[in-house]
């Protein structure tokens, strides 16, 4: 997956203006009838599902697609895998504008709000009633993330706080002791781990990663109201200082697309990241041993909560069939398979087993209590672009701006 670089593409602004929300044909069938609306008895309706993820993710989804007829005999489910998160965000807006996007997608709460605000997702409350799917299987906390202004926009899939990952062998070979719990301890360890072509820490100049630093200092974007807060300034100063000291590296400077590639190629000893690392590393570097910890403390315990959900797009050709297929993806067999890859399923019946199946993530339990939403401004793409561009201009381009100046400049765009 992820490259879990979930920033929106620059094409979004160009394409959103061209998007016209189309409603699917109404269904004359009851919730108990599994035929897609507008189909004749015995005919199948094709539903297209889009996601980005690992080869292992694709295998699980394809297996689910092959078995969907055991539940919905009239639905044919086709899977579209985008090569990377960047390709997903670059391609999806244009597909939506052209009316050729998948019927439903898997998406995280980090990038969802702008799409909801632009009216590109289908509220599913009425569809839940007409299809008869059972939303009681999902915990209220998960459903609340996808409830905006009293409307449901997604079928919850996973929930998990952000992580701090350490190359276990590098740590032990360096003779370091207890794992770090604060950024001060991380910096001291990074100086020891910084050897040859290996940097002590990977700091991906991406909104997801920057936000986790911000939250560890008690900060946050406040949906655009607190961008230049003192806490946020402190977090950026920490990032900038690590680059000035030569202990940090960003994937772009090494020709990689995201932090997981740097980590799997062992060009960086530590990184912020998430549960998707397990599935990715299992495929990219199965011999690499790592430790997963909560985001280190700046002045407080703080990190982001990532929640994935299945979203029906506004112009889905058959919304009822799309919702049924999306709901089917949360079946126990599929969710258990993803649990083996490190995903914490948003199912009350299974989530209790998560840390038993993924003991390497057991240190993350406390973070479930204090991790929170990303709190990006409504114009998410413009904000995340500005944040990344300003930091890259400083760290990669030598703009000379201070953290305060960077955040003041961005804040002025969202007043």
TrEMBL record:
Q: Which residues form the signal peptide?
A: 1-24
- InterPro entries hit by this protein: Bact_solute-bd_prot1, SBP
Q: Which domain of life is it from?
A: Bacteria
| Keyword list, A-Z | Cell membrane, Lipoprotein, Membrane, Palmitate, Signal
Q: Does the keyword Membrane apply?
A: yes
Listed Gene3D superfamilies: Periplasmic binding protein-like II
Kindly give the PANTHER family that the UniProt entry links to this protein. Answer: ARABINOSE-BINDING PROTEIN-RELATED, POLYGALACTURONAN_RHAMNOGALACTURONAN-BINDING PROTEIN YTCQ
Task: List the protein's name.
Answer: Carbohydrate ABC transporter substrate-binding protein, CUT1 family (TC 3.A.1.1.-)
């Amino acid at each position: 997956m992820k490259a879990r670089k979930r920033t929106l593409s620059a094409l979004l602004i160009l394409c959103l203006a061209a998007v016209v929300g189309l409603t699917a044909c109404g269904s004359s069938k009851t919730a108990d009838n599994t035929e897609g609306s507008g189909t004749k008895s015995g005919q199948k309706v094709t539903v297209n599902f889009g996601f980005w993820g690992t080869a292992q993710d694709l295998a699980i989804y394809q297996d689910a697609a092959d078995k969907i007829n055991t539940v919905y005999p009239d639905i044919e489910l086709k899977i579209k895998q985008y090569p990377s998160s960047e390709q997903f965000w670059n391609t999806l807006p244009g597909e939506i504008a052209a009316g050729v996007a998948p019927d439903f997608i898997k998406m995280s709460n980090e990038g969802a709000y702008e799409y909801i605000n632009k009216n590109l997702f289908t509220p599913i409350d009425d569809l839940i009633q007409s299809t008869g799917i059972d939303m009681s299987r999902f915990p209220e906390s998960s459903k609340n993330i996808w409830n905006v202004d009293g409307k449901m926009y997604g079928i919850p899939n996973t929930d998990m706080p952000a992580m701090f990952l350490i190359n276990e062998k590098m740590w032990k070979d360096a003779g370091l002791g207890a794992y770090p719990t604060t950024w001060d301890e991380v910096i001291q360890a990074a100086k020891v781990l910084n050897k040859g072509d290996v940097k002590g820490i990977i700091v991906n100049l991406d909104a997801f990663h920057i936000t986790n630093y911000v939250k560890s200092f008690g900060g946050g974007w406040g949906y655009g109201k607190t961008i230049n807060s003192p806490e946020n300034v402190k977090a950026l100063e920490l990032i900038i200082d690590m680059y000035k000291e030569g202990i940090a590296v960003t994937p772009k400077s090494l020709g990689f697309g995201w932090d997981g590639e740097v980590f799997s190629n062992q060009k960086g000893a530590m990184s912020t990241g998430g549960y998707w690392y397990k599935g990715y590393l299992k495929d990219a570097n199965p011999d690499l041993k790592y430790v997963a910890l909560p985001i280190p403390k700046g002045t407080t315990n703080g990190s982001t909560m990532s929640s994935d959900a299945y979203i029906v797009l506004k112009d889905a050709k058959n919304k009822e069939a799309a919702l049924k297929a999306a709901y089917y993806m949360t079946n126990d067999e599929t969710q258990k398979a993803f649990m083996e890859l490190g995903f914490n399923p948003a199912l009350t019946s299974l989530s209790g087993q998560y840390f038993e199946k993924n003991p390497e993530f057991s240190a993350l339990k406390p973070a479930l209590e204090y991790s929170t939403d990303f709190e990006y401004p409504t114009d998410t793409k413009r904000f995340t672009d500005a944040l990344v561009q300003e930091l890259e201009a400083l760290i990669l381009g030598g703009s000379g701006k201070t953290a305060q100046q960077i955040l003041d400049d961005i804040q002025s765009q969202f007043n």
